[in-house]
Every structure is written in C-alpha cells, then in structure tokens.
Amino acid sequence: MNKKVRKAVFPAGGLGTRFLPATKVIPKEMLALVDKPIIQYGVEEALASGIEHIIFVTGRGKGAMEDHFDYSFELDHTLERRGKNEILEVSRGIASMARISYVRQKEPLGLGHAVLCAKELVGDEPFAVILPDDVIDANPPCLKQMIKVFNEKQGSIIATMAVDGPAISAYGCLAGSVDKKNPRIYNCTGMVEKPKLEKAPSNQAIIGRYILTPRVFDLLEKTTPGAGGEIQLTDGILALLKKEKVYGYNFKGKRFDAGDKFGMLQATVEFALKRPEFGEKFREYLKGLGI
Ligand code: UTP
Fold it and tell me: How many other C-beta atoms are found inside a 10 Å radius of the C-beta of residue 52?
C-alpha cells in the first residue's frame, strides 16, 4: 500500500438547506467568503499540505464548481485584451491549481455515501476528506498538521477542536485517551453524535477534516442508513475502529462553519480584518459602528 496521503476527497453533494434561499440555485460551496468561493479555501489548504489530486463528489446543480476550476476562455481573452494581467493571473491560477477529478453522487444519501462514491478514484491508498463548509484558518494548514501525525502513526486521523460547555451538543464528540507524548493526539475509542454535556466523553468536537485508510470503503459499503436515514461517515469510522487504530488530533488553528449563516458572518469579519488591502479600513469601519 502507498502510505503517502496524495489525494483529497471533497464531498460537495449536499443540498445546503441551512443557507436557503442563497443555495437554491448557487451551490453552497460557491458562496463567497470575502472574495473567494468557500471551496477554494479548502482546495488551497489541500495543495499547501502536499495533496496532488483533488476529487470532488458533486451532485445536481453543482456545475458552477466545475466551471470555477476550469479555464474561462472568454473571461481570460477579455482580460488579456484589456491588459488586466493581475486579474488574469488570479482567474487562470484557479484553473491550473491541481489535478481535479469529479464523481457524481446521484442522490444525497449522506456524507458516508458521498465518500464511498470516491472509492474507485482513490484506490488502495490513504486519503484525506475535506468538508468544504469547514473553513480553517491555521498556519501550518490543518491538513498539513494532520498528515504529519499520519506519517508518524500510520493510522486514520480525525481532526478535533476543544468545545467547552453545552455547545458540545452540536457536534460529534470524540472518546479516547490522550497520547502520552503529544497532548494534541487522542487514541480514539469511540465517537458520540451530539451528546448532552453530562454524557459527552470529552470536550473534543469532531470537525470536517479526516485522513482515512482505504479499508473504510469496504466498511462503508456495509454501513446501513443511520441518523436521519443517511449513510453516516461516523458509522464507517466506528466500524474501522474495530479493525485498526484511529486517532483524534486537536489541530492548531481556528475553524469556521461557513455552511451556516452565523458561521459565515464570523468568518467574513475575521478573514476581512486580515486582508492587507482593506483590513485596517474595515477595522475602523467596525469601530465606527460603536457596538
Ligand atoms: P452538511 O450536512 O453540512 O451539508 O454535510 P448539507 O447537507 O449540504 O447542508 P445542510 O445541512 O442541508 O445545510 C457536510 C458535507 O457533506 C456533503 C455536503 O455537501 C457538505 O460538504 N454531503 C452531505 C454530501 O456530499 N452528500 C450528502 O449526501 C450529504
């Protein structure tokens, strides 16, 4: 088996109902965070982490995503004619970013099912899963941190973040013991979906970054629909846990849920404040609101 993590799967076949009406026609992954579609943040993170092949799992109405990562002859030609070389570079840069493949999830049967759709394209090697809604601000990039842990442990890795108090009930929660050498690593023993605070096995909330061994595909094939009638990735990983070691990794950085209206607002403010072209101006504007 090739032990290097070279491929990243981006499940993008969901309906994005939390962001209606914006997502009625526009795929959630194409909503702009400041000036870039949220999926591009994930793609840039993957490439900065050494990923060579991006696999998008798409569904109906996601054509805009394919166009976004392709050359736009008309746009590029017009920009060239107008001498707008800087903007031309930005437009072309996206298209030349990486090797990209697409696979269709015919029906949104759940995240586990979406990952399973990538089985043939991934083959027999470990791979990353990036949920594009989860935009992460981290240096080094979150996936790069995880690949480092994978290279040491040679086992599946689930990214987590600390969530204290009742807010943990909004997440999948990791059960496990802290690694003796690295307090950011957990030896995973289980996962509990949206537990009440008193029942939560830890304060480690599972977020949208995984590195999985290919064995998970066979297990997902046998996974029956769980919560919400969907084939859950969590159920596939729980089955994997019975066969191999799985680790939690409390990454260094900040995660935003850009698939949710409030999370997108938080991400917009924080990413805008970091922009050199207008961050300072925006900070002054916010101060001026006197809130
Ligand atoms: P979400 O539950 O956050 O996405 O799934 P959703 O279903 O699109 O959104 P809401 O809850 O209705 O607003 C997490 C990720 O899994 C993908 C989604 O596209 C999203 O990136 N997903 C989910 C699939 O690819 N297929 C599915 O069947 C379900």
Answer: 13
